[in-house]
Amino acid sequence: MSAQPADASAPTDAPTLVLVRGDITDQDADVLVNAANSSLLGGGGVDGAIHRRGGKAILDDCRRLRAGHYGRGLPTGQAVATTAGDLAARWVVHTVGPVYSRTEDRSALLASCYRESLRVADELGAGSVAFPAISTGVYGWPMDDGARIAVETVRAARPASVREVRFVLFDAPAYAAFEVALG
Ligand code: AR6
Known about the structure:
It is a single chain. This protein has a single domain (16-182), classed as 3-Layer(aba) Sandwich (Leucine Aminopeptidase, subunit E, domain 1). Helices cover 36% and strands 18% of the residues. The protein contains 5 helices and 6 strands. It has a 6-stranded mixed β-sheet with strand order 1-6-5-2-4-3, sandwiched between helices. The structure holds ligand AR6. This is Macro domain-containing protein. Pfam families: Macro. Residues 4-183 form the Macro domain.
């Protein structure tokens, strides 16, 4: 008789975390996560780069989402998948980070972006997911804190299919902040 796992329903390990310095649109992960805005219709930063390089098919899918379930836009902290168009990925998962506030603690919403993106990726059966540092650009989140929330949230997740999570950091300070957060 062949060996069986002691408990097939036991929770899996957290995915392996990897840091990469570079442009997320160069990644060949199954899922690239887009730091979008609630319109889903594009913008600057990661969003601009993903739409530019992924081509019109992504925007067409986003328009279909807006015409359907997301008529009012994608709420902050949620995530939704589209095609990856011409990118070397299978899907783009769009999520909307919170705008940083000095007076209000919005960190639960930022954690939700990572958790929900992983959930959607897992539902798709993705094995690898590449994240940018959500909210740390136009939305003003301090990089050290954004990195801490990203790492803590992904470490707490137990997706079934996602075995590798890459954080793709655009510059040296972002990479250094994630190194500190990884410990
Ligand atoms: N690859 C990896 N990281 C990048 C790239 C790239 N190609 N480009 C920028 N970054 P941001 P947000 C880094 O502004 O703060 C858009 O207009 C960047 O240095 O892309 O969530 C949307 O439409 C920063 O550390 O996203 C929204 O309106 C991080 O990615 C709004 O910006 C996130 O920066 C979302 O703002």
